[in-house]
Design a protein that fits this description.
Radius of gyration: 23 Å
Organism: Paenibacillus phyllosphaerae
Protein name: Zinc-ribbon containing domain-containing protein
Strand order of the largest sheet: 1-2
InterPro entries: UPF0295
Keywords: Cell membrane, Membrane, Transmembrane, Transmembrane helix
Oligomer: single chain
Pfam families: DUF2614
Helix content: 40-55%
Largest sheet: 2 strands, antiparallel
């Protein structure tokens, strides 16, 4: 994982990024009308409006995809913060405390077995 958050939150972050990027491009496009005016400004604004709209539609797709994955995610209780969290795949992070979680016993680091310490 690139960021230290749950996979669902990472997808939502990418959706937010595409939303802000698309809105920024649309605002930048309207600046062409202000600075150049006339036909050149309208063409500049039109190009950036279309690219910004594509980025906005991409964000809608990412949010839809994250929502569909969220409906089929496994819900479990985090052992650290005792809150219900969703996990995608075999390993993921808690949505709240960022603890690494796994459903595969072979990848678990602490299996809850008692340890014997000798002094």
């Amino acid at each position: 994982m690139f960021f230290k958050s749950s996979k669902i939150n990472e997808f939502r972050l990418w959706g937010l990024f595409f939303t802000l990027f698309g809105m920024g491009l649309m605002i930048l496009g309207t600046a062409g009308i202000v600075f150049w005016g006339g036909q050149a400004g309208k063409i500049f604004a039109g190009i950036f409006m279309v690219i910004g709209m594509i980025a906005m539609l991409l964000s809608v797709g990412v949010y839809f995809w994250a929502g569909m994955m969220s409906t089929s995610a496994v819900i479990l209780v985090c052992p650290e913060c005792n809150r219900h969290t969703k996990i995608l795949g075999k390993t993921d992070r808690c949505m709240y405390c960022k603890t690494k979680l796994t459903l595969d016993p072979n990848q678990a680091t602490d299996l809850g077995e008692p340890t014997t310490e000798h002094m």
